[in-house]
């Protein structure tokens, strides 16, 4: 049996907003929606439970990235200055 003969199509309904939100997260994780759903299905079968949490690093959240970019712009514009501190000892 070839790989294509072993595959089936699964169809389900989701709200447009939920689908778009899931696609956005999958893209950020470097996954297609199909790959993400296959990971989920394999894990459910293997672990016999709803298995895991895939989360994004909050550092890369759009709000945090915008804050960091603004801080960098402010340093370049001279609006704020950086100060050296002694948190790390030599």
From TrEMBL:
Pfam families: RelB (PF04221). Keywords: Toxin-antitoxin system. Transmembrane segments: none annotated. GO terms for biological process: DNA-templated transcription; regulation of DNA-templated transcription. It comes from the Bacteria. The keyword Ribonucleoprotein does not apply. Belongs to the RelB/DinJ antitoxin family. NCBIfam families: RelB_DinJ (TIGR02384). This is Type II toxin-antitoxin system RelB/DinJ family antitoxin. It comes from Faecalicoccus pleomorphus.
